[in-house]
Write a structure and sequence with these properties.
By secondary structure, this protein is an all-alpha fold. Helix content is 76%, strand content 0%.
């Protein structure tokens, strides 16, 4: 008897990326997670400016994100902005998929939830990106990185894409309880 043919990683990646498009609620969750991630990455790249603006007047949040997006463009060009945007988009997809996996795990019991949570934490670590260096006070480290930190951003994007491809469509991902 022959084994069923295993789907390829690219097909699973496509299914994982398309999953948020399957309902308006999922699309909204992905959009909100994308905007929040982009904002956090941009604001954390220049933390002192962000803190000054937002502590003086929190209503200036839009101005801070816009001004720091411009600064990101001036420092890294369109490639840097595109990489941060792609990173945020992939994080939005990953959050949407993770919420579905958590819901499925909750129905499966505590043992499956314990198996999904470490994966969510690993995906969260993959989505922290180059902006964390600025938050930790290592903004000068970004300037020392080759290509203004774009290689670090590409690495994060590849890592997120790898995990999304491994997961695929979370509705078809099998979550088995540990034995």
């Amino acid at each position: 008897m022959t084994e069923p043919r295993r789907r390829g990683w690219l097909a699973d990646l496509r299914d994982g990326l398309a999953y948020p498009l399957t309902s308006n609620r999922r699309l909204l969750l992905a959009a909100v997670a994308t905007v929040v991630t982009y904002s956090v990455l941009v604001l954390s790249a220049f933390p002192q400016f962000a803190v000054q603006i937002l502590t003086r007047d929190p209503a200036q949040f839009g101005y801070a994100v816009t001004a720091l997006s411009r600064q990101l463009y001036l420092g890294t060009g369109w490639l840097g902005v595109a990489l941060v945007a792609a990173y945020a988009l992939l994080t939005g997809v990953a959050v949407t998929n993770a919420v579905t996996l958590l819901r499925r795990a909750r129905r499966g019991g505590a043992s499956t939830l314990a198996g999904v949570v470490p994966g969510l934490l690993a995906a969260g670590c993959a989505s922290c990106g180059a902006g964390v260096l600025g938050t930790l006070g290592l903004l000068g480290a970004m300037a020392a990185l080759p290509f203004e930190g774009n290689l670090l951003r590409v690495g994060g994007i590849l890592l997120l894409a790898y995990f999304l491809g491994r997961t695929g469509d979370p509705r078809t991902c099998s979550i088995e309880p540990s034995r």
